[in-house]
Amino acid sequence: MAIIHGIKVNEINTGARAVAAASTAIIGLVATASDADVTTFPVNTPVPVTNVTAAIAKAGAAGTLAKALDAIADQCSPIVVVVRVETGVDAEATETNTKAGVAKLLQAESTLGIRPRILGAPGLDTAEVINDLVTVAQKLRGFAYAAASGDDLTEVTDFAGDFGQRELMLIWPEFTDWTGSAVARALGLRAKIDSETGWHKTLSNMPINGVTGIATPVDFDLLGGASSAGLLNDKNVTTLIRANGFRFWGNRTMASEPLFAFESVVRTAQVLMDEIANGLLWAIDKPITASLVKDIVETVNGRFRTLVSQGRIVGARCWFDADANPAASLAAGSITIDYEYTACAPAEAILLNQRITDKFYASIADQLG
Known about the structure:
By secondary structure, the protein is of the alpha/beta class. It contains twelve helices and ten strands.
């Protein structure tokens, strides 16, 4: 070995890494607009909108695009990936065009560098379109918001019975301004909540901007009595109520799996998948050593500690299970890491025990001095 006369620096790249937060407040919007500016909104092409209010001027007046952007802008000014589709010669043709537009949302990440997570096609969401929205949402680890079809409670609950996916929230009825308004405002409000509060808060019981009325009145009882709102929620349909303003009322997804009944739980699972996977990119192809395993586990636990301190999850832990990692698997280049978490459930029901008693009369003399 040659003699070193001076200083040699060994760079040590071990230890836990920071895990970046996932961007969840990005909307994927499919809409029609026959008179939109074709340069700003080319047909069947995902385009980014970073200033929603300014984009409305380029969206034309026909179709659903301008109205959807306006409804979103009433809530906040998020990034929106827009896919404009052509209005067909009939409803069937428009549905076919919309389904093709929904599929185009999958291209956004590769062409624009952003992944839409909050998906919808306000005013165009037939049952077939909803199924495609859910399929795309599953691939993007996103969430779809859509209108439940029907003129009354029976028709709506029958319609809801055709879905069982955890990536979907159905909404009924509609606001009075236009068909698609409720879903468009749900997209905007979801992005607002993600930005200001977090993905762990559901859409329910938050004031909605820009609304003047509900097309089909829904009776509602805050004290839990029988009501149309309660019936809809029992069938996992989010409804609209008027209580100190207009609000969405309902926390439920269409999941057939009870573990993912709440919107907040589904979105927590999605965020953890993305954040942890992306946060461990640095570890791929490094030599498998005890130090590497320790760094992976500590990286994940470090992110969990941050999320717990932010109130975004109740608790979580990551660990290395020796039994799940036999020598042969490690030698073959495969490491298994386990983690568990508890998502924040919404306070959907608050039970109050009210009792009547005469015991407080015992101090009335003291109160009189």
